[in-house]
Amino acid sequence: MAPNVTLPADLARELEQKYFWWEPIGLQPRSHARILAQAMEFASFADVRRLETLLGPTPLIEVMLKAEPGWLSERSWEFWRGRLALATGVLIPEEPPRRKLDAAAV
Fold first, then answer.
1. Do 92 and 84 meet the contact criterion of CB atoms below 8 Å apart?
2. DSSP labels, 62-100
3. C-alpha–C-alpha distance, residues 62 and 40, integer Å
4. Those residues with Cβ within 8 angstroms of residue 58's Cβ, 6 or more apart along the chain or in another chain
5. What does the domain layout of the chain look like in residue ranges?
6. Low-confidence residues in the chain, pLDDT < 70
């Protein structure tokens, strides 16, 4: 289930320009959840504090709980998990989602 995250349009545009260096695939624009996850992955500490201040914990937790495999590295996952779980008491899995390969299906 995809995260239901909505960012202010100007913030979404700014984060997308700053944290994506490739064009979107296909005709669909990137989701706000994907843009936020990319920002969470590469944010400087100043940007981390800005995201926390502007958005609060709810959309950040939503992205983590419904992230797709590859959206957040283990390092970023642990960083955000520590900050958000401590601040809110929400249980966040210890590891980011991983791709599952079924060898029988290949």
1. yes
2. HHHHTPPTTSS-HHHHHHHHHHHHHHH-----SS-----
3. 12
4. none
5. 30-94
6. 1-3, 102-106
Residues 34-55 have pLDDT tens digits of: 999 999 999 999 999 999 999 9
Which residue carries 């909505």 as its tokens? 6
Tokens representing 99 are 């791709």
82 vs 26, 77, 85, 90, 91, CA distance in Å?
A: 35, 8, 5, 10, 10
Query: Cα angle at 76 between 51 and 48, to 5 degrees?
Result: 20
**Residue-level pLDDT at 7:** 93
Residue 9, token pair as written in the block: 């349009």
Q: Which amino acid is at 102?
A: D
